[in-house]
Design brief:
This protein has 225 residues and is α+β, with helices and mostly antiparallel strands. The protein is built from 6 helices and 6 strands, in the order H-H-H-H-E-E-H-E-E-E-E-H. The chain has one domain: SMI1/KNR4-like, CATH 3.40.1580. InterPro entries: Knr4/Smi1-like_dom (IPR018958), Knr4/Smi1-like_sf (IPR037883).
């Protein structure tokens, strides 16, 4: 991958800090604040602990821009040391399997783990409310076991949440390494790769810089235009 020029990004983000509330979705959460970049020694420690080399554009961001903070939607999950170990923090960051990042992400196209599940039980098929409730409880227990099985997201780093348990992740291992994906399992829509205007896969840099361009455009719009 071509090296990304991250120079000026921190200045662009800082300039957006004067944007009125409500003009850019999610900005109230991160308040346009970027955490300090990692040092090369810290990045080496991160990758040694995780057992995987992160994609180059994300590595560059961590070293030149910041370890997290201002970013798409409610912000970019920051990398921090917690109890002596590097990990990402945020709403859904715990979905990142720190011990399975070197395992290949198993999907190469849209995948919905809940697609093969049977339909939920129909109350009219049961003689009593108690029987229906028992069947419904069993169904949702099976549903959650299948839909939210951690094996579906090995080899990925969750980086941002969009609200309502929708999240975006970066693939760090396997044939889709370096691409950004959506996790919409909360709505039984499964996983799907993020794409550009011509259907092409996008990586971290495109994902972040497209957001920054859009945020800059929105910040310049009249409040009641």
């Amino acid at each position: 991958m071509t090296n990304i020029d991250w120079s000026g990004v921190r200045d662009r983000v800082a300039a957006l800090s004067r944007t009125p509330d409500g003009k850019v979705f999610g900005a109230n959460a991160h308040a346009w604040q970027l955490e300090p970049p990692l040092t090369p020694a810290e990045l080496t420690e991160v990758e040694e602990q995780l057992g995987v080399r992160l994609p180059e554009d994300y590595r560059g961001f961590l070293l030149e821009v910041g370890r997290g903070g201002a970013g798409p939607f409610y912000g970019l999950f920051p990398l921090r040391v917690v109890d002596g170990r590097w990990r990402w923090e945020g709403d859904g960051a715990d979905l990142t399997g720190l011990d399975t990042l070197a395992e290949p992400f198993p999907h190469t196209g849209p995948f919905n783990p809940a697609a093969e599940l049977p339909e939920p039980p129909d109350e009219e098929e049961f003689a009593t409310v108690e029987e229906f409730n028992a069947a419904e409880d069993a169904y949702w227990e099976l549903h959650d076991k299948v839909a939210y099985d951690p094996k579906h997201s090995v080899g990925t780093v969750y980086l941002s949440h969009l609200g309502c348990a929708y999240r975006h992740l970066l693939v760090v291992s396997g044939p889709e390494r370096g691409t950004m994906w959506a996790d919409d399992t909360v709505d039984d829509d499964g996983f799907s790769p993020l794409a550009g205007g011509h259907g092409e896969r996008i990586g971290f840099a495109r994902w972040y810089l497209d957001w920054l361009d859009e945020a800059t455009t929105k910040a310049r719009e009249p409040l009641h235009g």
